[in-house]
């Protein structure tokens, strides 16, 4: 299996989710308060000072990970020791770790319950009781198939990875969770045990290509497509090499090596065949499963139905955006919700354990997932199994990779630009009225790694031109997720500090000082009080990948226009947290003291036919004042309103897309985007 996510040399590198039950219409379904809640693959390491040369690993499995920093030695030595002890080629061991966690040792477990760089899963852990969102967990169900070790495949076998490693090594589960050497030894023991059971050659100097089935089995999934994808990702890392700084500050690299994976071994794992069983809109390699969301009557009234709307997209309305959500519930519970006609629907759900994808809506239909009907009209929604705050604070690498494969496919098919203005989180979507602003969701939260995600999408956020580097008017926030450990509170209790993890934002302050208060977001705190570090408070967060107009510079501090105020962030030349970019910005037309901003781009009143009520367009509580500038995200947003309020498509004046002549621009207003009328602003090419 090959696809566009094979590694290529590159430079160095909430709560949302399922919402509460819907009564009637979409408004109640989204009345949720916000307080509830790169990859770096290199062709070589000569530039980093490594003297180790690439070599053919076909026979020996070498060369292997090298230290690119003085603090990386312990993990490097752990891989080497485990390779020798259990007879696993070191390249294989390190590639499996990279495909699981990118060599990270997170301070806690993943959504699947996995620990350490080898992602050993604790069966006793289970899923968190609930996330900071409103999803509630049900009883998980698992379809099991025999794996190479005789235990169940799929999620049931995956959940016993830690226990199986403990039995094979004699180590305690606590040691396997918390000690990197023990964790890596456990992963090596699992690989070696599977290889022996399959009857393939073992040994630290054995042919790395002969470990293909064992690597696929290490994915922990019983699905053939997911296991094959995992193995191909691991072997692509061996072939292309990798280098990065981990979230715990270690800098590791893997030199490229020649390898010929023996893909024919996969038949020995007795994996489940393709799950595709319906009209899926999905890349073939993902083998997406069709689990349809119901379109059913839920009462006697014409408007009593669920859990989505029929349409004729992309003809009308157009598909222009992809929304990234997290579920705040287990995968099984999420499927129970999306198949409930009284609930809500989105397009796809992705499973944390292996990246498996389930599709729920035909692409032409409109899901109810964004809390903003205009965005629903034009978007495809992806729910990722995970939690924005409580419980697991990191998302699995297999899920990131499946999501990126899916989004690349959808973006190509529907001509959606691969940038943060068109592929965005639920937390970037504006409320439709001032009253909706504080109730909008904030998933996927501060721990979704946007820089890594866009690297996987093949649209790295750090890739800028020489002209970009000379720009002065606009900047793109790029704080480097791994080392950007901003203080966040409230993950477990209201005031407790969250675990020190990489974050995807920089804080904005009211002055060029580390002691200055955070800026105010009038939509969240109308009393003028400053934003906080609460995990749900996005009021002073400039998120990675977003572009903003520069308001002022003062030493190592940069101010941007943000929700109507100047927001200052630390941006030293020696270690910048934002890069200059070219582009355009808007500013109020001459003579206007300020211009309103909106949460949707609806048509003018005269565009509505007699049978369709005019949708009033209320400005939000933010404004763009004279002298302020905001980066443009899209100059060609559709101006329309898709009327769909009844079950039957034969209802007169319903299931109609009303198109207007008024023009709007999408701008980067704050953490969330917004729209301004073209008639109110001038568009200026940034210098």
UniProtKB/TrEMBL annotation:
PANTHER family, sorted: N-ACETYLMURAMOYL-L-ALANINE AMIDASE AMID
Reactions catalysed: Hydrolyzes the link between N-acetylmuramoyl residues and L-amino acid residues in certain cell-wall glycopeptides
Entry's Gene Ontology BP terms: cell wall organization; peptidoglycan catabolic process; peptidoglycan turnover
Segments forming domain N-acetylmuramoyl-L-alanine amidase: 308-445
Molecular function per GO: N-acetylmuramoyl-L-alanine amidase activity
Uppermost EC category: hydrolase
The enzyme's E.C. designation: 3.5.1.28
Coiled-coil regions, chain positions: none
Source domain of life: Bacteria
Region: Disordered, residue numbers: 1-24
Keywords (A to Z) from UniProt: Cell wall biogenesis/degradation, Hydrolase
CDD domains: PGRP
Protein name (Swiss-Prot/TrEMBL): N-acetylmuramoyl-L-alanine amidase
Classification via SUPFAM superfamilies: N-acetylmuramoyl-L-alanine amidase-like
